[in-house]
Amino acid sequence: MTRNRQYGLVIGLIIAAGIGVANAADKPGPANRLAKESSPYLRQHAHNPVNWYPWGPEAFEKAKKENKLVFLSIGYSSCHWCHVMERESFENAEVAKILNDSFVCIKVDREERPDIDEIYMTALHVFRQSGGWPLSMFLTPEAKPIVGGTYWPPDDRVIDGETVKGFKSILKVMKDVKEKQPKELADQAEEIAKRTQARLEEGLHGRAIVTLERKLIADGIDEVIEGFDGEFGGFGRKARGFRGTKFPMPCYLELLLAEAKRTKNNDLSKALALTLGKMATGGIFDQIGGGFHRYSTERTWTVPHFEKMLYDNGQLAEIYARAYETDPKPLYARTIRTTLDFVLRELTAPEGAFYSALDADSEGEEGRFYVWTPKDLEQALPNKDELDFARQLFGVSQGLNFEKKYSILTMPESAFEHKWTDVKVAEKIEVVRKKLFDIRAKRERPFLDTKILTAWNGQMIAGFATAGRALKEPKYTQAAAKAADFVLANLRTKDGRLFRTYMTIDGKGQARLNGYLDDYAFLVHGLLALHDATNEKRWLDETKTLTDVMVKWHLDEKAGGYFYTSNDHEKLFARSKDQFDGAQPCGNSVAARNLVRLHAKTGDAKYRDLAQKSLETFAGPLKANPSAITIMLAALGEYLEAKAGTTEQKDDLSKPGGKATTSDSVVKVTSAAEKPDANGKQVVTITLAIDDGWHIYGNPVGSSELVAGSETTVKVSGKGKPKLAAVVYPKGKLTKEKVANEEIEYFIYEGKIQIKATIQRVAGDKESVELSVNFGACKSGKAGVCLKPSEVKLKVPSS
To answer: How buried is 159 (Cβ within 10 angstroms: 0-12 exposed, 13-18 middle, 19+ buried)?
Structure first.
């Protein structure tokens, strides 16, 4: 159990997830409000005895009117622990009565409303809690978060001698706190809301004095490789021996793929090949039916979490296809084909668009559809020769590998590579696989989420289009085009804006919810891939149209980058500008890369300028935490490569109309040194003359909202290993600026300023030393122009 003593009101309520599975559900009761919703996840809860509301004003008005807290539960249809909590608590009459009597209960599908999910997941992180689903959160009637957690068992449990509160106890505590300490509760919610808002805007205030250069990409690669598992591929915590879950991390793989191709770096190529090979032959890949499961629960990729998500398979199909173009391994081709054939067979609507997910559970067990007992295999393959062959081929001869009674089928890479080229062996493999597939198809199937999401369809379109091009398979390119046609025809308004989701209920299709940033960015990415594969002008025309719509409704005109929600979206207590890649890249990463590619394809300078502005906006996060935003790094790489390939004339400040590009163009730096005293101390006066209309940041800069490193600094170096005994910076001019509706204050230097630096030399040091003065210049006023930072080096003699 994790605790945080910063918030003392309801500290003991944050309970760790993942303890046990309850009995099967009771018979469905009367329908609640969720029965009228389109989301399959919400409809799964339509017969709970809990009086659920969908997210909306009706629920919050009821909470205000009745002076009740809101209980918010966020999940998705293929979430295993969401099902567990439903069976244990939401179908439990006793729990439902407590919820209905004392709270207003809201259910949210995180895939339909990722904006809500991000805000309250961030609130949970403010409490220093690990995230996960179901996300359980208590809110005020104004929708401000109070406290939350993930999965909560219904009753108290004793773990390692400590009593952990169950859901019923938590509900009782929250009810008591609301009645007895309403002011303290409200104050806590206000504080959490402020911290949540600050976290969502972290790193994007002010102007980052960071050069857009390849070193940012190199630093990101170093961070990624630092967590690389050299034995089994993939990424994790080396210090922990890579214990725990291991995700495919497509965003990491995409950066490695791009940089390995550009630099011909053999180490990057090996890391990529090892990871792609181990995943494709492990249990995370469905060796019988094709397609990737969500993630591996352990280091070797053997035991997956069995849900299958469209976005994982779209991204991985694209990566394997692009890897195949560089390194045409039979394993890659087989992985691509079986993945896409799985999607066509099981995740494709009759109209051509793609469904969202397959559940992990069936027959009341996680993974039961995919795993095999010894008896299962014997019954499926009565021929002893085929049975023995299958046991060897799929790693079954090595023993049971799941819950001590099942085998998850793997295909050791060595067996695959050596045997696949033998036609007779390949035919035998296919015969055995087909028999197992046909037997497995008769089992109870996992739940299929038939929700069609614009963003995820964009990723799958990119996977099909890239694979069609790489494998020269027209059926895959045609599938991409058919899905694109459906989305453009059915998930777009008359004025060209995108919807988020589409569902067919009782034979009627319905598109709903304003599109988010990733809906535009991911769909444009897919259409660009289609243009690459077909060279058809219509796909490029659609990308330009959708990009222009995205810019109109999502661009932050002042600070740059794109808000996740549109300008006319429902106003929540916080608004995010996503800047972190996860299981999927963030919308800003993909948007920046799209803009770079659009400029390359069209030559239109507006796309280049928009790309540059985005990259400059996120330069601070790129420098501070590059491995958290690797698709933005890939975009930067393509931007720099395109820039290096141009023949643009450099600015010449000596000519009329010349334009400053680096900070030392507008700041002149000189120094005057005194002689060292008897103790080796030498005082140097450094003068910075700043051109009119420009400023540099003070030291201290005075605001945590500005990126670390923005302030003016002085450093010393030399053969005698001198040190700075003291540096006295002048007091800066206090400046106020309004950013994202919040006023920030910081200090700047203008005109002529002097810095006093005292150097401590070692006894007998007669060498010159070097002072390095680092600063970044920006245009004063509202122009918002910042130049590349400069480092000016000054030689200081010993006498």
So the answer is: exposed
